[in-house]
Amino acid sequence: NAGVMQNPRHLVRRRGQEARLRCSPMKGHSHVYWYRQLPEEGLKFMVYLQKENIIDESGMPKERFSAEFPKEGPSILRIQQVVRGDSAAYFCASSPPSLPYNEQFFGPGTRLTVL
Amino acid sequence: GDSVTQMEGPVTLSEEAFLTINCTYTATGYPSLFWYVQYPGEGLQLLLKATKADDKGSNKGFEATYRKETTSFHLEKGSVQVSDSAVYFCALSGGGSQGNLIFGKGTKLSVKP
Q: Is the pLDDT of residue A101 over 70?
């Protein structure tokens, strides 16, 4: 069973460009989470999605950032008009639909550098 | 809101030394608690977990006990190895959306031979 896959692993963008980060969850997992890790910091929650639904986007900046998890295909985190402060590692995690707790499995991350 | 506080690093130990990384939390309700490990250039891997008070999570020689009375989940290992060098994150779940994990800032551990 392949783990959570993210691509690209490294992404370089100039200020003002768009960044698209992709995440394929583990097989059988229907919940996807995106986190951002700034240098020397812990991970900060951004958004939680299930297939075709955004469940919680309370950690995502209101402007320039969007996320989707379509019925088919990977989850996409999109950052429009990137700025230098967007430089970070972005991690995706997935979990099966089992409550009461969510054990999340993380991908290797996408390291975004904005020049 | 819910939060996690863990001891600041870096922590430098000699091989075979005893390790403790402190973690305390603030949460409403009864969260589940986790320790994740991040090796250089990689994503996070779940190290161990505990879902209710007095549970002990253990894996690869690491242990942590869910202490509700002290709101703590300290990570311990009796004898560390060079290969344990990594960043360790304490986290809790069970927040409002029952989805996201809340992480501490991480503790970098370096083990010298």
A: no
User: Hey, how many other C-beta atoms are within 10 angstroms of the C-beta on A89?
Assistant: 20
Residue B40 is predicted with a pLDDT of: 85
A52-88 per-position pLDDT tens digit: 899 999 999 999 999 999 999 999 999 999 999 999 9
Residue B109, amino acid: L
| Nearest CB to A42 within list B45, B99, B106 | B106
Average pLDDT over residues B82-101: 83
- Indicate if the pLDDT at residue B98 is higher than 80: no
Burial of A110: CB neighbours in 10 Å, binned 0-12, 13-18, 19+: buried
Provide the terminal-to-terminal Cα distance of chain A, rounded to the nearest Å: 37
User: Which residues contact residue B98 at a Cβ distance below 8 angstroms, ignoring those fewer than 6 apart?
Assistant: A99, A100, A102
| Candidates A6, A37, A104, partner chain B, best to mutate (most B CBs within 10 A) | A104
**Could you tell me which chain A residue has the CA closest to the CA of B45?**
A106
Query: E strand or H helix at B108, and its extent?
Result: strand B107-112
Q: Which pLDDT tens digit goes with each residue over B30-48? A: 888 999 999 987 888 999 9
Six-digit token string for B20:
């403790």
Q: Report how many Cβ contacts below 8 Å link chain A to chain B.
A: 70
Is the minimum CB–CB distance between A31 and chain B shorter than 8 Å? yes
Contact A56 B100 (CB under 8 A): yes
